[in-house]
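[Automated response] Your request has been received and processed.

Submitted sequence:
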Amino acid sequence: LLELDGYGLKRQAVLVDKVLKTIKPLSVKKAKSKKQSENFWQARKAALPALSSIAPSVLLEDVTVMRSELPSLIRGIQKIATNNNLVIGCFGHAGDGNLHPTIVTDLRDENNAQNTKKAIKELFELALQLGGTLTGEHGIGLVKKEYLEKELGKKSQGIMEAIKKVFDEKNILNPEKIFKK
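Generated structure:
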């Protein structure tokens, strides 16, 4: 789903058409009215609920790369899904390189749980390998904290920890979540 806005819409549309001719998608549907555009967006908003209906566990991740690296990221995600025998839906915000790989699985099954853990590690490593970041909008959180030093480096992570100590001397704000006391 692609929506153009801002200046130079005609020029943008010509470029998009050129790219679409190059990549040869299976189909292209262009909204002919505001109502049709709204219907397309409703379909996009239904993506997560649709994925949630496939299996009992849905893990929505968030990684960001330069827009020029999006094709490599998507191919990499497809490979990760195949190699780990998982379904990974992918949607997000291509305009800023932010994707939401969404792993659909059953974590009650030990094999699926192990494959999921491995896939998440591979996903984060792929984003960093492509020069990206672990998050574009959802933050680091508990799942990504073990990869933070790999992205930032020990020195930068130490600076972040020092800043937290300045504002949270007693370590009462999310204690032990990212930084140990």
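Summary generated for your ticket: Strands lie at 57-60, 63-64, 87-93, 98-105. Helices lie at 9-23, 34-45, 47-52, 70-83, 110-129, 141-144, 148-152, 154-167.
If you did not submit this request, please reply to this message.
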